[in-house]
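Reading a protein record of the kind used here takes little practice once its layout is understood. Each number in the token line that follows is a code from a learned vocabulary of backbone shapes. One such record is shown here in full, so that the layout can be seen directly:
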Amino acid sequence: MNTRIVYTTGAGRMCPDCGWPAKDCKCSRPGAQNAEVPAKIVAKLRMERSGRSGKTVTVVDGLPKNDEFLAELAAALKKSCGTGGTVREGCVELAGDVRERVRPLLAKRGWRVLG
């Protein structure tokens, strides 16, 4: 039985996944965006083109979901590679195929790099 609320005027914004009010959402934990950064990180590098009009993007995936950590990492990688980029949930996307430039930068931080 589906008990998801379809419409209400008193609850405010609703979570599209679980149907609960956004402030009491059961599917996304508020602390998940600021998870602790582990001592050993395994970063996964890959190149993507799908859904980007044929433009190439380098994705650094498998990172902890910590907003401050991801923002600092994205800024450092964008500056070192001389390219644009963005932060997504648990990953950093950099414009172009810059895997060969990113790999030594991540290894220098003491991370294991796959891909």
